[in-house]
Design brief:
disordered N terminus, 12 helices, about 15% strand, binds magnesium ion, eight-stranded mixed beta sheet, disordered C terminus, about 300 residues, binds adenosine-5'-diphosphate, globular
């Protein structure tokens, strides 16, 4: 459990296909994990998608994104905003590093430099500020972080919400992560994007991040009695079995109207999450949260 102090752990939520549930997974995991984490192990969500849906859902579209800060090698801690207004359990433990359209231009600029792909990793490796002493979102806009002393350093669990595709920010996330979690929508052709992803993971391992591990795969939007859904689940099962236990196959998240409803606005997100807390639709997310809470070391998140 969290009693043991560990270094920060970074999990990238990745699938090159759009609309498979990456952002929903980040939100649901943050909700469940902040509920279980003590103050010294907060959850930091990072929005790496220029479309910035996560940022919008957490009501932070007016907050500056991390793009310029990463470009200028500033402290990304200065960009943190509290997620407590929108997640039920977040309190002082749920934080967001916002994304925005300027991630596009930052990617173009950073891609010119040989170490550009490592900039996110370097930024996340900096000591974290004392998150519990920060105010809520409104206060946050006017209140930059104070200097951090090593004694105040914390060990957050960092969730990277990746954009679709295998472009600059997805590669940066894979270079920065200890582990990756792959939501796979139970749809025909779902396994094709998985193959492309695994080729990219292999090349990131060999060139940038040898410790990158696949934590597991999460089937999303599963539907009973849909033949294509059974095919995808069978394919994922084969893949997990072939990994001899290294890759977990988490319980499928059923297709449920509660998820699109969650994302209408922040208030609904909060009240929707309250309603779903004990629901079967969150079981897959609960299983992942249990694995991440038990994280034994930063390089062995499973
Ligand atoms: N289990 C689910 N059942 C039904 N709709 C879902 C489910 N998970 C996600 N969605 C919806 O699917 C859409 C895409 O999800 P999102 O998390 O934004 O995907 P991504 O980040 O991969 O693009 C959103 O409208 C979301 O509310
Ligand atoms: Mg998304």
């Amino acid at each position: 459990m969290w009693a043991k102090r560990v270094a920060s752990t970074t999990i990238a939520i990745v699938n090159p296909k759009g609309g498979v549930g990456k952002t929903t997974t980040v939100l649901c995991l943050a909700e469940l994990l902040t509920d279980r984490s003590p103050v010294e192990s907060p959850v930091v969500m990072v929005d790496l998608d220029p479309q910035a849906h996560l940022t919008a859902l957490l009501g932070a579209t007016n907050s500056p994104s991390i793009a310029t800060t990463l470009q200028e090698q500033g402290a990304i801690g200065d960009r943190l905003v509290a997620a407590g207004d929108r997640l039920v359990a977040a309190g002082d433990r749920g934080w967001l590093l916002p994304g925005g359209l300027d991630l596009e231009s930052a990617a173009v600029a950073l891609a010119r430099s040989p170490e550009g792909l490592l900039r996110l990793r370097q930024a996340l490796a900096q000591p974290w500020p004392p998150l519990e002493s920060l105010g809520k979102l409104d206060e946050q806009k006017t209140k930059p972080f104070l200097a951090t002393s090593p004694a105040q350093t914390q060990s957050p669990l960092v969730l990277l919400d990746c954009p679709p595709g295998l472009g600059f920010w997805t590669l940066s996330a894979l270079a920065a992560a200890d582990g990756l979690l792959i939501p796979v929508q139970c749809q025909p052709l779902a396994l094709r994007s998985l193959l492309a992803l695994m080729e990219t993971v292999a090349s990131v391992r060999s060139q940038l991040n040898p410790n990158l591990r696949v934590v597991g795969v999460l089937p999303t939007m599963s539907e009973r009695r849909a033949p294509w859904c059974d095919q995808v689940l069978a394919g994922l099962q084969d893949w997990a079995q072939a990994s001899r236990g290294a890759i977990a196959l988490f319980p499928p998240i059923p297709r449920s109207a509660c998820f699109p409803k969650l994302t209408v606005d922040g208030k609904l997100l909060r009240s929707g999450l309250v309603r779903q807390r004990r629901s079967v639709v969150l079981q897959g997310y609960e299983a992942i949260a249990a694995v991440l809470v038990d994280r034994p070391s930063p390089t062995h998140p499973t």
